[in-house]
Amino acid sequence: MLRMLEAQAPAKQTATDTINTLSGRLNNANLLEDRRAAILGLRSFAKEYPASVASGALRGLISSLTKDGEDVDTTKVILETLLMLFSPNERSPEASDDIALWLADEFTQRQDNITMLLDLLETPDFYSRLYSLQLITAICSARPDRTQECILSAPLGTTRLVALLDDPRDAVRNAGLLLCTDLTQSSTELQKLVAFENAFDRVFRLIEAEGSLLHGGIIVQDCLSLLANLIRGNTSNQSLFRESGCVKRVLEVLPGGSRDGTLRDGDGEDNDFENPQKGKNIWGLLAIIRMFFIQGSVSSRPNSETFQKHGFLQRALDLAFSSRWEGPIRAEALHTCADMIRGNTKLQEGFAQLQVNPFTQPTAPENGRPQTNGISKVYVIDALLDLTLRPSAPELYSSRFAACECLKAYSHGHGPIRLHFLHRAIDGHTSGEDETANVLTTLIHGPPGSWSSNPYGSWFAAVLVLHLIFDDPEAKKLLINVTEGDAENGEEVVTCIQAITGNLIDCLQREQDQRISIGYLMLLCCWLFDSDEAVNDFLGEGSSLQILVQVASNTSDDEYTILRGLSAALLGIIYEFSTKDSPISRRTLHPILTSRLGRELYIDVLKQLRRHPLIRDFEISQQGTSSLAAHGSLPSVYFDPTFIDFLKDNFSRLIRAVDRDPGIEILPSSSSTSGINRDALDDLRAELSTRLSALQKAESDILSLESALNQAHAEHKRAQETSAAEVARIKNINDALHKGHDTEVQKIHQGHRASTEYLQDQHARELEALQSRLQRAESRVQDVEQEVQDQRDRAKADSERWRAAFSDAQVERDDAREELATARREIQGVLAERDRARGEAEEARKAGGEQARQLGRMTELEQERQRIAGELADAKLRIEELMTVAQEQEVGRGEVERRVEKGRQRVEELEAQLAERDRALTKANQKVREVDEEVGEREEARKAVQGELDEMLMVMTDLEEKRAKDKVCFLFRTLMTQWLKVDPETIKSAR
After folding, report:
1. For residue range 531-579, what is the model confidence (pLDDT) as tens digits?
2. What torsion, rounded to 10 degrees, do the Cα atoms 28, 33, 37, 38 define?
3. What are the distances in angstroms from CA 134 to CA 79, 173, 970?
4. Full-prediction pTM beyond 0.70?
5. CA distance 987 to 902
6. How far apart are alpha carbons 137 and 116 in whole angstroms?
7. pLDDT tens by residue, 774-810
């Protein structure tokens, strides 16, 4: 029995069939309730069957959202369904990332879809706003570029989105904040539009409402993300931020500001509680501030000066040297200071005058407040040196690195500051009375503590000195003169370079931390490069070369690839800039490179160094922010960016150094010659000494010749006296000749003056004659102008008259068109009535009887035809008269003639139509004769219907006489009268 019932039961419906049924119901339903019920059914399948629902009902859902947008309940269900399609169940068999792309394409391919979602943001309903924002966010995640274009094209698109930041409902406001953040990540245009919608002020108000940086949560972090998108690389928004007073708002929300979110009691002490998010918030705001100081940006300098006007440097330094904050916040504050002063001369010079609290290790707070020790403030440079060079825990490396960057920025591109810094370091090291950490003391004597406990102390000191002397010959020379040791006490006196080299050799032999050796090698490479004086100082201790060769040739351990490469690079620099007069000459150094080390090994070691990941991938590594290992090991930071650029720029030169002839010396970079041959220079020097002896012999010959020259001078003097007497005599003769010449010149001048006066009189008379002729010509020109003006006036009057006539003609033409249309309609009515009458007459003839009346009707038609022919002849005469009048009155006679010709053609066409009607009348007469033959047979039938036919014929006769005589004749009379004013197209349409 059960089996029979099961067999009779209907087939079980699948989910796909149900979805298809609901989709069809949604697309075809006319009532709102039916569509809503279909959408509710689809929503239940959207999570598990997103592909099926999207393929069958997506366009229906969008269409229903457009039609039923005013219904809040339906809108909510539609938006929920669409959101489920974007985030289906991960365990669903139809779940795929392609569904989101497909859905986003469907929305973004039509601008109206995005505009519809933006329109929903203006509705007061909570769910309509929230779900619309979430849906736009999902579309933007799948197709960010297309979504940004649609938002830009939508009317008031950005205005609506930014306005949501003021929504009192937290969920809507937060969703709007996330959407603005997503949209502004890559679109510069959207960044500008959002910023100009007063977004900066709205974001700061939101940060303050959420408890500022100290008490704010994830919402504050989202606000900072939006600020970062608007500021990053956008100089226009940075200018707007700067000019709208937002810099002051930034300092107010930073710790210590008036709106930092700290609650203060009557004693002015902080009552804030620990917030795990505040560190991220402060770090994020400092990172945003760094975006204003990008090196090379045109807006970096005005941004720096604006921030400094509000005292940002001091605030950031207080933040960096406060024990209240963690290491990342301190490091970011120092990095921000470094970016702010780098390359800004004014800020660099004022930076050293700032004072801060000395750096202390973070301590546990007592009763919720950090402990204070009451230590007096120190100058910021001393505090930065102590932080950089003093030993500290590995977790404070980021702060030490940032302090080093701050010191490098302090002297960056400022020669006087670099020399002043170097002088202070030299004086402090020489006197030994420097209370703060000293870079030279750290380099020469080692860092405070031990190398193993503080390897970065020596590394930071080497990097700082490298930046002080890099590409600065004066600084290099100043540091070369520094010595170590007291000769009076029997100590060995060594130079600074030799002391640093000794420390390097000691570290290499004891296998100390590689960072220490790398720091020394970086400094020596940059110091010795392009400085033969520094190379000679290094070669004064020749035993160091042997250790460098051993390290460079040790290929047994791959761990020391960097040390091998740097040692080889230093050997190449020493050989490249050594001279014949060096303590170890070039000819002695060359075999060390080519034989003991080997040319192939030298080149291979340098190439291995260049391919090492720490150098090859240096630009993409995280310097200063690398994470520490779980057991507290040191970060993997080995090189300074300046040295990396130096090595890459001169790598090919170091490769070629081993092949350079030892007889060729490299001149300093300031020389225009690349090198000099010392053998040729020695030959030139010998030749110079020979020529100097020849020059001395020539000088003795010159003395003997000078005595002979004196005698010649005496004889010359006597000859001059004789010549002077002769010149006096000739002068007297010349004076007499000048007197006669002056008399003749006066006579010539008088004759010239008389002729000039005569010519001037003659010119004046001719000028008067020309002026009189000119006056006559001017009067004649005035007469001609008056005549031309009169002609223009007459032409203008004629033009006005013809324009008026043309206007009258246009009015008549319009009246004629109206009459023509009326006549056409009446003709059509007459023709219809005529056809109807003919049909009735035909039926009457078939019934037997109206030949007599038809004969009478034919006679009347013949008379009417003759009368129309007469009127047609009258119309022709009227046309000829109008042609005559038009020829006399119109200037454009050619146009009138063409219209007359068209009128004649129309008359000919009417004559042809009249002939056609004559032929039709003839056929009708023939038909009448045929009917006469049947009269006798149907005479009796005619008598039976004679009364009825008489009444019908009387009606027809009255209609034909009235319309044929009045309307048809009036039509042709009007046509003949107005044809001259009707264009060809009107005639065709009438026809």
Report:
1. 999 999 999 988 899 999 999 998 877 778 999 999 999 999 999 999 8
2. 10
3. 9, 11, 77
4. no
5. 9
6. 15
7. 777 667 767 766 776 776 677 677 667 766 766 675 6
